[in-house]
Structures are given as structure tokens and as C-alpha cells.
Amino acid sequence: MPELGDLIEIFRMEVAGIPLIPLLDYQHWAVYVGDGYVVHLVNLGSDSFSSSSNSSKPQTKSKGSKGKVKRQKLKDVAGNDEWRVNNKLDNKRSPRPAQEIVKEALSLVGQDMNYDVTKWNCEHFVNKLRYGIRRSWQVLKYTLVAGAGYVGGAAGTLLGPLGTVGGAAGAAVYTKALLDKLD
């Protein structure tokens, strides 16, 4: 059971009924505020994968769109998807006091906010509440994966088929090592 101020990571297994491939997994984030409720930032933009007005699905473009802060039952936000408490920065940063996290989260409920998948998404939002920093490891992960793919592709172009395999494998190992250092 989550405690006040805990970050909740929800593992989205599909978007708009389409299963996600493992490399493109997506987690939605919320902060627990008690009595089975969470507060989270949802994307209301027209460029989201989902047309639902309470979407917590990713958007397809990085350009900002409309978002809204909502308070909802965790079971409704998670639906059939798995979730877990994930306060992954607690070993590197001191979280703000739980009552402050909850008070600020609740004060934001109903507010419209800009939602930008790369600059201000649900993960940035909850990390700002708990730790006072805007951080999204998903954005960093996809940036590193894209960079690794570019490097692997360039190596393949220069070295042929074996270069592609070697370049992609090396880039993947390097990306994994960088992500492990951040966690």
C-alpha cells in the first residue's frame, strides 16, 4: 500500500488498444495523496494517441499541448495496468515532507498546465512535487536510445552488415550503462 507522497509508476502496456513493443514502453506517473487517490498530470492535447479527455497516454509530438492536473482513484488511473511505488531518487535526494507534497499536489488539482512530452510531462510533474526537481528518465532514455540508434546506423553504413550489428549492440550496451548510472 502506498504512503502519502509516494510516487506511483503505472506500466502502460498499450496505447489506444495497440500493444507497445518493449523498447517503446511507457510509464504514467502519479503521486499518492491518501484514501486510494492520486494526483497526476494528464495530456489533453489533440496530438495524443488517445482521444479520451482524461488521457494519461503519451502524445506523439514533443510540441506542447494542453494538460490538466487531476485527482482520481489509483485503481481508475491504473485500470488493468500494473503499478508500483517507485521513489527511485530517495537514495540520492531527500524527498520533501509528505504533508508538503500532498498539500501542493492537492492545491494544483483542476489547474490547466502546458503538457510537453519532453519538457513537462507526468514524470517531470511528480518528481517536481516529491524532490523539487523537474526530471524525466523516460525522456532521457528515449534521447539516449535515439542517439545510440544513430551511432549504430552510422557504423553500419560505414562497416556493412556486421558493422550494423556491432554498432547497434555497442550503442545499446553504452545506453544501458548510462541509464544504470542515473537510477
UniProtKB/TrEMBL annotation:
Listed under GO biological process in this entry are: N-acylphosphatidylethanolamine metabolic process
Which GO-annotated molecular functions does the record name?
A: N-acyltransferase activity; phospholipase A1 activity; phospholipase A2 activity
Report residue spans for region: Disordered.
48-75
Q: Which GO terms describe its cellular component?
A: cytoplasm
Q: Which UniProt keywords apply?
A: Hydrolase, Lipid metabolism, Transferase
Q: Ranges of Low complexity compositional bias? A: 48-62
Q: InterPro entries under this entry?
A: H-rev107_PLA/AT, LRAT_dom
Q: Return the Pfam families for the record.
A: LRAT
Q: Give me the stretches of Basic residues compositional bias.
A: 63-73
Question: Locate the LRAT domain: which residues?
Answer: 18-138
**Family note:** Belongs to the H-rev107 family.
Q: What is this protein called?
A: Retinoic acid receptor responder protein 3-like
What's the source species' lineage? Eukaryota, Metazoa, Chordata, Craniata, Vertebrata
